[in-house]
Amino acid sequence: MSPTAFTFRPLDPLTDAELLHSWVTHPKAAFWMMQDAKLEDIERAYMEIAADEHHHALLGLDGDGEPAFLMEYYDPAHRELVGLYEPQPGDIGMHFLTPATDTPVHGFTRAVITAVMARLFEDPAVRRVVVEPDVSNTAVHALNEAVGFMPEREIQKPEKKALLSFCTREQFFVTTGVSA
């Protein structure tokens, strides 16, 4: 699966809430920490993101224009990591979620993270992507490494112990072979 097969659109908190609810409450999305969320909780959470100038949510669409994954990005100087590390100019934080499926496609999640990173680096102001996945989420650590992330250290967030990792523009393009 090619990362270029995906496109992005802004998430609509109301019309997309039902779909997101099915994704984030699935047992395979445990690291998203919304297992017990009600539909209204999802609507509220994504309405807050839509109103936040420092946090954004997009849906990744497959080649047929159907929602295939969720992407969030945020300014770590203002959200998620405030006080937990020293942000640099050009830093951007990122989360992504691929929904559970009964028919997995080999290479899909790697294509998704590659597309997400390429989308972030389309902005010339972005110099480094910051992630903070749960330390026990070994699957995402491997994916992060596959696109150039380097772990720095463990940090304690209010909701989890996280592995703070960074990927520069150069690391991403060299590691993945994606052209700038």
TrEMBL record:
Residues 9-56 form the Acyltransferase MbtK/IucB-like conserved domain. Pathway: Siderophore biosynthesis; mycobactin biosynthesis. It comes from the Bacteria. Acyltransferase required for the direct transfer of medium- to long-chain fatty acyl moieties from a carrier protein (MbtL) on to the epsilon-amino group of lysine residue in the mycobactin core. This is Lysine N-acyltransferase MbtK. It comes from Streptomyces longisporus.
